[in-house]
Amino acid sequence: MEEYKKIKEARRKWEEKTVDKVISRFPERKETFVTGSDIPVDRAYSPESFDEERWLDEVGFPGEYPFTRGVQPTMYRGRFWTMRQYAGFGTAEESNRRYKYLLEQGQTGLSVAFDLPTQIGYDSDDTMSVGEVGKVGVAIDTLKDMEILFEGIPLDKVSTSMTINAPASVLLAMYIVVGEKQGVSRDQLRGTIQNDILKEYIARGTYIFPPEPSMRLITNIFEFCSKEVPKWNTISISGYHIREAGSTAVQEVAFTIADGMEYVKTAVRAGLDVDQFADRLSFFFNAHNDLLEEVAKYRAARRIWATLMKEKFLAQSSKSMMLRFHTQTGGSTLTAQQPDNNIVRVAIQTLAAVLGGTQSLHTNSRDEALALPTEDSVRIALRTQQIVAHESGVANTVDPLAGSYYVEALTSRIYNEAMDYIKKIEEMGGMVKAIEKGYIQKEIQDAAYRYQKDVEKGDRIVVGVNKFTVKEEAPRDLLKVDPALRDLQVKKLAKTKAERDNEAVKKALKALEDAAAKPDVNLMPLIIDAVREYASLGEICNILREVYGEYKESIVL
Amino acid sequence: MSERKLRILIAKPGLDGHDRGAKYVARALKDEGYEVIYTGIRQTPESIVSTALQEDVDFVGLSLLSGAHNELFPRIVDLLRENDAADIIVFGGGVIPEEDIPFLKEKGVRAVFTPGTPIQEIVDFIESKRDERHQ
Questions:
Q1: Structural domain of residue B28, as residue ranges?
Q2: A372 lies in which domain range?
C-alpha cells in the first residue's frame, strides 16, 4: 500500500512537471484517445492502474480458475493452436480437392463452409436457392454430397468444424453416417458444429425456426452428443458475427456470453446436469486491428465465463468453467482497396488471437473483400499463422502480456462493462427476450453507425480507403464460381432421389414429423435414420418447418 | 413538386444476412432527409418489387454480399419493367467484383457502389437523378 502511494505521488509529479511542459509546446495528436471500440486510453499506465491485491483472484495462473491467462497451464509450449482455414465452394468434389490441398500444406483441422441454401435448409432445386448454389460454400443436399466431400479423408484422423446453425442436427447426422460408412465409430469423431441460433437472429441471418423449437433442437444435440459423440463440440457460441455486424469489443464479449448463458439455462431446464454438457461448449471470437484491446477482450471473456459458470450455474468441474475458443480474423476490417494491405492487417490480428490464447485460428485472405479467396491467397493466410507460430517467439511463454499495466487495466474494464450488459440482459428476462425486443440489434447498429460516421468524417483512418488512397486497376484473378453449378447439383439430387428407397425415406420422414410434435423426444436418432436413407436436407427441414413454423425478422433501424 | 421527398427502398435480395451495409446506407440516407424503407434480409425479387410498387418509391437500392448479384439484380429490374415500373431507378452495392459491373449496368442497374464508397457518392447519384424522377 505504501508503495502504491509513492507511485501515485510520482505519477502526479510526472504529469505536472514533465508532461505538461511538453504538451504546452507539442500538443498531442488528439484531445482524447480511444480504442477501436471507443474505450478511453490514458497517456501511460503505471502500477496503480491495476490493483495488484486482486491479482490472484482476477488474473492468477494459466490453466487455473478464473482462466484469465488461458485454459491450459502450458498453452503453446505444449502444442500450437489448430490452424483451421474455413473453406468450401461449388460442388462437394471441388471442396474435397481444396481440403486435401490445405491438409497437404500443413493445415491441422478442417472447417467446412456451406452455401446459403444449405445453411437455411433449402435443397439446390428450391426456387429460394436461385443464384446462391455453391456461392459462399459447398452445396449439400443429401448424404451423397457429404460422402463425396470427405472422400479419402479419414474422419478418425481429422477434426472437422462445420459452420452450420439452424440445420446443424442434419449435417451432424450426415457426418456421423459418413463416419459409419468409413468404419469410424461415433466416439472417435472430433469436431465442432456452430449450432448457435441466437446470434443468427442478432447478426448472421441464417435462422429457420422460431427461438423455442430452435433451442429444443440444440438441447437435443447436447444430450445426444454427451452420450454418443463425447469428443464433439456441440456448439460454437459466436461473437464473431456480432462484431462483424458492427459491435464493439465489449458488446462482442457481453452478447456472446449472454447467448451462452441462455443455452446453459435451457439445457438445465430440460433436465441436463451442467457438468454433463458444459465442457463441450466452445466459443468463437473475432480478431480486429486494435491489438491490445483484442488481447484484453479474450482474457476478460475467459474470466467472465469462468465466474458465471462457477457462481451462477454452480458447475463443479473446472472443465465446465473453461472458455475455449476459435478465432477468425475480422472480415469487416479487410479493404477492397489495395488488397495486399490486408496481409498486414491479418498478421496483426493473428498476433492478437495468439497473444490472447486462442485454441484455433482462421486467417482471412487478402482478397476476401472482393470474392472468395484464391488458392494463392489462402496459402499466404495460412503462412501468416505459421510465421507467428514458428518465427515470432510469442508462443514460447504463456500469456506474455500479463502484467502489462495497460492490458490488465483494459481487461478489467472490458470485464466490468460486459458484466453490466449481462446484468441488464438478465433483467430483461434473458437473451431471447432481449432479442425479441430488438435491444441487442439496436445496440449493435448504433455502434456500427457511429463507427462508419467516424470513418466518413475522417476521425478514424482506414488506410487505403479514406487516406493514402491510390488510383487502382481492377484486381484480376478472382475466384469465380460457375453459375452452371446449380444445374449440375439439381441433376445430382434428382439422380439420388431416383436411386434411393423412397418408401424408407417416407417412413423415416413420417417418424420425424411425429416426434417433432412431441417435446420430450430427442430428434437426433430420427434425423440420423432419415439422412441414412438419403432424405434430403430440404425434405427434413420442410417437415420441421411445417411443425414449427418459420422465424420472421423484427426489423430494427 | 420539388417539395416531394424522394422515396428510397433499400432491399436485401438473396439469402445472405450481411445487413450492416444496407442498414448503414438506409439510416444515413434517412439522415440526409429522404424517405427510406428497409425490407430486411432474405427477400425474393418478387417481394422486393411488390414492396417497391406498394410504397411508390423512386429508387430501389439492392445490397448483396453472397455473389448472387448477376442472377438476382437483373431479375428485379425485369420484374419492375413487367409491372410498368421501369421508371424506378435501381442501384446496387455489396461485394461485387469490378468486372461484373458492366454486365449489371447493361441489365439496367444504374449504379453499383462497392465497399468503401462514401455515402456522399450515393447522395450525389440520387440527386443527379432527381429531375428524371420529377419529369
A1: 7-129
A2: 52-457
Q: Which residues of B touch A458 (CB under 8 A)?
A: none
Contact B40 A246 (CB under 8 A): no
Contact A297, A413 (CB under 8 A): no
Residues of A in contact with B19 (CB under 8 A): 205, 245
Strand order in the sheet with B59-64: B35-38, B7-11, B59-64, B89-94, B111-113
In a domain, A285, yes or no: yes
In angstroms, the CA A119 to CA A475 distance is 30
Write down the H helix ranges in A322-404: 341-355, 375-390
Which one of A203, A206, A478 has the shortest CB-CB distance to B97?
A478
Asked if residue B135 belongs to a domain, the reply is: no
Q: Do B26 and A130 touch (CB under 8 A)?
A: no
Chain B residues with CB under 8 Å of a chain A CB are: 14-20, 23-24, 26-28, 30, 38-42, 44, 66-72, 95, 97-99, 114-116, 118-120
CA B69 to chain centre: 12
Model pLDDT for residues A238-254, shown as the tens digit of each residue: 999 999 999 999 999 99
Tell me the per-residue pLDDT of A133-162, one tens digit each, with 9 for 90 and over: 999 999 999 999 999 999 999 999 999 999
What is the model's pTM? 0.95
Interface A-B, measured as beta-carbon pairs within 8 A, has a size of 101
Q: Check which CATH number belongs to the domain holding A125 and give it.
A: 3.20.20.240
Cα of A120 to nearest chain B Cα, Å = 8
Residue B114 belongs to a domain: yes
